[in-house]
Amino acid sequence: MSAYEAVIGLEIHAQLKTASKLFCSCPTSFGEGANQNVCEVCAGMPGALPRINNRAIELAAKAGMALNCTVNEYSIFSRKNYFYPDLPGGYQNSQFTPPICEHGHLKVSVGDETHRVGITRIHLEDDAGKCVHGQAGKTCVDLNRAGTGLIEIVSEPDIRSAEEAAAYMRLVHSILVYLDVTDGNMEEGSMRCDANVSLRPKGSREFNTRTEIKNLNSFRNIQRAIETEIERQEACLEDGVPIVQETRLFDADKGRTMAMRSKEDAHDYRYFPNPDLPPVIVRPEQLACWREELPELPTTRKERFMATLGIAGEDAAVLTSEKEIADFFEAALAVSGNAKRLAGLMRTEFLRECSARGIGPASAAMGPEQLAGLAVIIENGLVSQRMAHDIFAELFESGHSPEVFVKERGLVQVSDTGELEAIVDEAIAGNPAELAAYRSGKEKLFSFFVGQVMKKTGGKANPSMVSELLKKRLSRAE
Questions:
Q1: pLDDT at 478 over 60
Q2: Helix residue ranges per DSSP H, 313-445
């Protein structure tokens, strides 16, 4: 057991789902040619005046409400001064004090334990551009992303493990996507985080020197990077090597963090109010209106699925982990009505097929109506659960009506009592040695007789009816 306790805080950056940038009318579309979505304002030209995007303020406030923050009626933008080649103005427009939201929290569950993670602040800021390395040995600058609206969500140092950090990030991601605040596409950089990590002796309340791991853009890499940094810092402490406050990068291929630069403190950025931007004022009546518009959030939705639909907690957690999955499930439920069976099909079959193809539910050829249709024909005894499993991949790929499919293929389950009784009798009569062994106490042979009936019906016999008929026939005295 380690003698140290990890102290972790995350700074999550989420690009706001606005049509235009934070201070100009340039589009925020991803994948355009280099420097296509650029104007005088987001290129940092002298004399170009910014104008605040009101939709960005709305999205930031809604995020704050969903994360249990206080939304401040008054906040301001400051200039955060530092040099990057892709920061054209030489400063970033960011909120320092007061920010738009502060003093929030989330309850994060890992296994059977739930911890409260405080949220210090949520502030608005504009994004930098992007350096593109390696073109003819040069570094080029693409400003398409420059000026895109972000919120930065800064947690308290309340997280105690890499696993908990990844769980917190997943929960924040889920909430923001539910709100439609961001598209949450981590591969495109729409959401990313920096992790502040330090160690202290167990039982200590003092904070030690921290390092910051920059630009982590997947849940897996967040956990891996923090685990790696904890191991590095622990080795340093054991060897008497001082921890240096610095910014580090995570090399996912090599599985290690590397020093990038010394870490700045707030005073190094020389914050001062931006004279070109007015204060952000959020009126109470506007805040009340936005609160009314908040959708059902994942935790509330999970509790509803459990309480009103009788779905197990583990299934409910999976079904509400992403808004797209939950919406698909509820659309299917409106058709089938059997929540438990539908939940089982979604979790064990549907989401597995989505994962194998790297697509979301909305992109699948099998829509909610087709998934619900399969649940219905299982419920009605048209096919068995086993047959549904065998044909699921083909139904998923084609999007065919399950009922039409099984009828056209001759896969309808045999549920006629008279027909099954005759087949059961035939299976028993054809295997006298196994019958004698069964009746002498070898009850494991029951599955042998089930297999014989299934073989004679091509796997189409109703399993529950076969089991009941066999129990009656096999228990008869000779």
A1: no
A2: 313-319, 323-336, 339-345, 351-357, 368-379, 385-398, 402-408, 417-429, 432-439
Residue 447's identity, in one-letter code, is: S
Place of tokens 């987001």: 42
The whole-angstrom separation of Cα 102 and Cα 71 is 7
Q: Are 407 and 379 in contact (CB under 8 A)?
A: no
pLDDT of residue 264: 65
pTM of the entire structure? 0.84
- Average of per-residue pLDDT values in the chain: 91
The amino acid that residue 348 corresponds to is T
Coil, strand or helix: which one is 183? coil
Residue 104, token pair as written in the block: 């929030």
Find all residues with CB under 8 Å of 20, minimum gap 6, and list them.
26, 27, 28, 53
- CA torsion 466→470→472→474, rounded to 10°? 180
| Per-residue confidence (pLDDT) for residue 337, from 0 to 100 | 84
Task: Determine what percent of the chain is predicted with pLDDT higher than 90.
Answer: 72
Inter-residue contact 158 to 37 (CB < 8 Å)? no
Q: Identify the helix (H) or strand (E) that includes residue 194.
A: strand 191-201
- C-alpha dihedral (194, 198, 203, 205), degrees to nearest 10: -80
Taken as a whole, the chain contains a residue count of 478
All domains of the chain in start order, with CATH: 4-286 (no CATH), 296-408 (no CATH), 417-474 (1.10.10.410)
Token pair, residue 18, equals 């606005």
- Out of 180-194, 388-402, 421-435, pick the least confident: 421-435
- 266 band by pLDDT with thresholds 50, 70 and 90: low
CA distance linking residue 236 with residue 238, whole number of Å? 5
Let me know: does 271 contact 82? Beta carbons within 8 Å.
no
